[in-house]
Structure formats: structure tokens, C-alpha cells
Amino acid sequence: LTPTGSTSTKVELRGNVLLLECIAAGLPTPVIRWIKEGGELPANRTFFENFKKTLKIIDVSEADSGNYKCIARNILGSAHHVISVTVKAAPYWITAPRNLVLSPGEDGTLICRANGNPKPSISWLANGVPI
């Protein structure tokens, strides 16, 4: 089975295409199956290529992080390999701040929600000066 060993790691960026490859040798030719440990492969974004040797997940997100196992099996036995996938993400807006127009003495609220991996820190500035 290629990759060799029992485990390997892969890092991909949010929004990209995740490609995982597992090549098995044997006679009769092994059938390859992919599973996500503790979860499901994303139904509408998962594709298999090269007779299931390649697992392709499009538009990956942080939720796609986890352990993916390829299992190669024929009538004589099986072999498996686990690929630990981490999806990293540059900061992105969940709720971006919006312009706020207030009259003197009026209260207002600005909301800023961002995410990423690693989790971004949020800081507020007024006219370029930290608040």
C-alpha cells in the first residue's frame, strides 16, 4: 500500500480541493474504499478518481479536518492507511462590521465576527488608534 506505514498527514487550505491518494498492489487487484473516521464523507463534494485510488473533496472547510482511512481489500486480506487531514484558513468574515451613522448622544453597536484556523484575534481601532 502506498503511502507506506500506517499513518500520514496532510494540510490543505480552506476553499481548495483536497486530494488524498492510496495505491494498493495485490493479486487479485484490491478494491479500495474510503471512510472518514467518526464522520461521513461530504455527500455533494466528494468524488473518486483512478478507480477510487484518489479521494477528491472540493471546497474544503474546517469541518473536513479529521482522519481519512483508505482500505484495500481482496479475497486474501486487507491493508489500510490513515491520513490525518488539517484544514487551515486565513481569517474570513462570519459577520463583517457595517457602517453606523449616529446622532450625538445616540448609542450604537458594531458587530464583528470572524473565523479562521488558527483562530484570528479581533481588535478594534478608532481612526487608526486601538480602543
Automatic annotation (TrEMBL):
PROSITE patterns, sorted: IG_LIKE
UniProt superkingdom: Eukaryota
InterPro entries: Ig-like_dom, Ig-like_dom_sf, Ig-like_fold, Ig_I-set, Ig_sub, Ig_sub2, Neural/epithelial_adhesion
Keywords linked to the UniProt accession: Cell membrane, Disulfide bond, Glycoprotein, Immunoglobulin domain, Membrane, Repeat, Signal
SUPFAM superfamilies on file: Immunoglobulin
Compartment(s) of residence: Cell membrane
Domain annotation Ig-like: ranges: 3-88, 91-131
Chief place of localization: membrane
Protein name in the entry: NRCAM protein
Organism in which the protein naturally occurs: Psilopogon haemacephalus
Gene designation per UniProt: Nrcam_1
